[in-house]
Structures are given as C-alpha cells and as structure tokens.
Specification:
It is built from 4 helices and no strands. It has 146 residues and is an all-alpha fold. The protein has one domain (14-39, 56-143). Helix 3 runs antiparallel to helix 4 (122-143). The chain has helices at residues 13-39, 57-89, 93-115, 122-143. The structure holds protoporphyrin IX containing FE (2 copies). One protoporphyrin IX containing FE (HEM) is lined by residues 26-27, 30-31, 33-34, 61, 64-65, 68, 71-72, 103, 106-107, 110-111, 113-114, 122, 126, 129-130, 133-134, 136-137.
C-alpha cells in the first residue's frame, strides 16, 4: 500500500465502532464504580456487609480492565496509521496529542491503582483517574468532530 499523506484518513468502520464502544464501556463501568464506592448506594448495601466495599465493585473493575486492555491495544493499532497520517497532514494534532497524553496518564494511574498505591492515596488517585477519564472522553468527542 502506498502511504500517501493525502489519502482519505477516516478510520475503518470496525475500528471506529470498537473505539466508541470501548470508551462507553470504560466511562460506564468507571462512573458506576465511583458512584457506588463514594455514595455507597443504600439499595445495594446488605446489613452484614456494613463497612465493606460493595460486592458490585469487583465485577465492575473486571469489565473495566477488559475494556481497558482492548482500548490500549487499539490505540497501538492506530499509532502507525491514523496518528502518523494526521501528524503529517498537521491536522488535529493538538487535541490528538492531548488524547494520547490522557490515555497514557490513565494507563499509568490505573496501573498504580492496581499494583502499588499507598492506602492513604487510594481515594485521591481514584478520583483523579476518574476525572482524567471523563476529560479524555470529552476530548475524544471534540476530536472526532466533523
Ligand atoms: C497525534 C494524534 C492524532 C492526530 C494527529 C489525529 C488526527 C485526526 C484527524 C486529522 C482526524 C479527522 C480526519 C478524519 O476524519 O479522518 C481525526 C479523526 C478521528 N480521530 Fe484522530 N488523531 C490523533 C489521535 C487519535 C486517537 C489517539 C484516537 C482514539 C483514541 C483518535 C480517534 C479519532 C476518531 C474516532 C476520529 C473520527 C474520524 C472517523 O470516525 O473516521 N485519534 N483524527
Ligand atoms: C484507556 C483508558 C483507561 C485505562 C487504561 C484505565 C485503567 C484502569 C485500571 C488499570 C484500573 C485499576 C483497576 C482496579 O483497581 O481493579 C482502573 C480503575 C478505575 N478507572 Fe480506569 N482506565 C481507563 C479509563 C477510565 C475512564 C474513561 C474512566 C471514567 C470515569 C475510568 C474510571 C476508573 C475508576 C473510577 C476506577 C476505580 C478507581 C479506584 O480503584 O480507586 N477509567 N482504570
């Protein structure tokens, strides 16, 4: 295939759809986790579980982790084609780089949340990660404008 910078640069439909579906899954599982964890939904609480994390948190994070792995894989899939081509065309570079930087920050903070964050920092880092996630979704919506 000739790698010509003026070739139309739209994403293949399967890739565009996968990115949207995964982003939605990340925002929904992350957002539900946040609201359950910090608002401690009374409807989900069982008396014998007083003070323990909600039983919904672990399954939500299992889904979140699966979506996050697929998302990181697809971002890799994009980097040699979509990113390079947009870079050469000098189009949407600002918000494209912001998107990549936010995804990198999410991967690093997510890794820290999973493997080594000190207990006292957990809530703050979790909230910061969630805020970066919402911001990333907003930049994504802006970036994909017509
Ligand atoms: C430096 C990095 C990037 C640059 C320069 C860039 C550039 C562009 C440009 C020029 C367009 C509009 C042209 C078109 O419709 O094909 C576009 C659209 C789009 N970009 Fe990027 N991009 C970057 C990173 C990313 C990343 C990391 C993602 C996903 C996580 C992404 C997802 C999209 C989507 C979904 C569209 C809408 C186009 C479609 O649906 O076909 N881009 N990008
Ligand atoms: C590519 C993007 C993302 C990556 C790589 C990522 C990665 C991770 C990882 C590895 C965890 C730790 C899992 C665990 O503790 O069991 C996590 C937790 C979490 N993520 Fe994400 N995530 C991403 C996007 C998002 C988005 C868009 C949101 C939106 C709200 C979000 C919200 C959360 C929340 C609330 C948690 C739980 C925080 C905690 O344990 O204190 N994430 N994420």
């Amino acid at each position: 295939m000739v790698f010509h910078p003026h070739r139309r640069h739209a994403l293949r439909p399967w890739l565009r759809w996968s990115l949207h579906a995964l982003l939605l899954a990340l925002v929904v599982t992350g957002g539900l986790w946040l609201s359950i964890h910090f608002l401690a939904w009374p409807a989900l609480a069982r008396p014998e579980m007083e003070g323990l994390p909600s039983p919904w948190e672990a399954p939500l994070m299992k889904l979140h982790g699966a979506a996050m792995l697929a998302m990181v894989f697809l971002v890799g899939r994009l980097s040699g084609t979509h990113v390079l081509l947009g870079w050469r065309l000098r189009k949407r570079v600002g918000d494209g780089v912001a998107l990549l930087a936010l995804i990198a920050a999410l991967a690093l903070s997510g890794y820290a949340l999973y493997y080594w964050v000190p207990e006292g920092w957990r809530d703050a880092l979790g909230l910061a990660h969630g805020a970066a996630g919402v911001l990333m979704a907003l930049v994504f919506v802006f970036h994909r404008r017509r």
